[in-house]
Amino acid sequence: MVSRIWVLSRNPVNYVTYHQRTCYNDWKRKHCLKYHGIVTPDRLISHLFGPVDGRRNDAFLWQESNLLQILEQHAHAPDGTPLQVYSDPAYSINSYILSPYQGARITNNQKQWNKSMSRLRIVAEWAFKEIVNTFGFLHFVKNQKHLLQPVGVQFRVAVLLHNGHVCLHKPQVTQYFDIENINIIEEVMEDELLEPPSLSEYFHY
């Protein structure tokens, strides 16, 4: 699942007069930094791109992250079949990216598919919500001063620590994924496909 997150911040007073638009997001109406990431079914944030200035749009994130090239290189089943990630409509549709059906005339089957996939995408949103809940200072806007503090680095470190927490506590999210008909890897139990690595495996000890 591809998802986006905004890390809210404030520009320092002596800087905001000249460059306040750099990190200002018109949709959020706040100063922020912007990321996107991929959350895999084991609940790890397996890809994170950012930060970029909050004024940048989704097309800029997509272009600068080279996500399509990364997926083309790495997202394949053993038989070569492309593996796809699910995103919101801001991203394109191709052999590696899926997004919801759009428009006023979508069929009932398409509506049901959108509903089912939206339920799965909640898992990705939870991952980012857990980060700001666990590391509350990331959500304390008055203390996040862009250019005076390494706000972007702080969030990336928080993602790394979040993944370590997932490896240790192995959250149960298997109920959100129906994989009984998936046969990607022979002789692998279904639960193992959703099992995060051990902490030592994750940090390559």
Q: What's the helix-strand series?
A: EHEEEHHEEHHHH
* Radius of gyration, CA atoms, in whole angstroms: 19 Å
Which bin fits the share of residues in helices?
25-40%
Which structural class fits the helix and strand makeup? alpha+beta
Low-confidence stretches: 11-17, 180-189
**What is the β-strand count?**
6
Number of domains: 1
In whole angstroms, the N-to-C terminal distance is 28 Å
Reported for the largest beta sheet, the result is: 4 strands, antiparallel
General shape? globular
Characterize the quaternary organization of these chains: single chain
Strand content: 15-25%
Report the mean per-residue pLDDT as an integer. Answer: 77
The number of distinct helices, counting runs of at least 4 residues, comes to: 7
Descriptive account of the structure:
- The protein has 205 residues and is α+β, with helices and mostly antiparallel strands.
- The protein has one domain.
- The protein has helices at 13-19, 58-65, 67-74, 108-134, 151-169, 190-193, 199-202, and strands at 2-8, 24-25, 30-39, 45-53, 85-86, 97-98.
- The strands form 2 sheets. Strands 1, 2, 3 and 4 form a 4-stranded antiparallel β-sheet that branches. The protein has a two-stranded parallel ribbon with strand order 5-6.
- A hairpin with a 5-residue loop joins strand 3 (30-39) and strand 4 (45-53).
- It is globular and about 50 Å long.
- Mean pLDDT is 77; it is low at 11-17 and 180-189.
